[in-house]
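Quick one, T. Sequence first:
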Amino acid sequence: MVEKMDILTSVTLPKEQARNYSPLTLAFLGDGYYELLVRQKITLEHNMSAHKLHLAAVKKVRASFQAKAFEKISELLTEEETEIFRRGRNANGTVPRSANPAEYRKATGLEALFGWLLLIGENKRAEELFEVIYNFKEEKK
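Structure tokens:
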């Protein structure tokens, strides 16, 4: 078993200051943080080619997966976390043509939540939510 190590040393902002960031800025940060968590987990679990690692990561970072996985953590969120998610979901960003708008907005909300948790130094909380998301298995159609 590989010993878990903290992959980030973050600057911690007060919640009030972090709340002043735009939801799309939080999502920008959260997107990178979430993907890094996915890549770390997959790498530690599987020793395979970079191409196969990439394909495995894409399954967990695509908007459709994040939107469905959010439903699994929504009941676990505090009021404050839910508010950050809502701000991200409701932000006016450009939805790519290849994405389902509803799924893309939920994914943006989830990424905003992860960005906010990182900014306020709540890495343990982010990792707790991430474990629930990562272990979520999509039903096959």
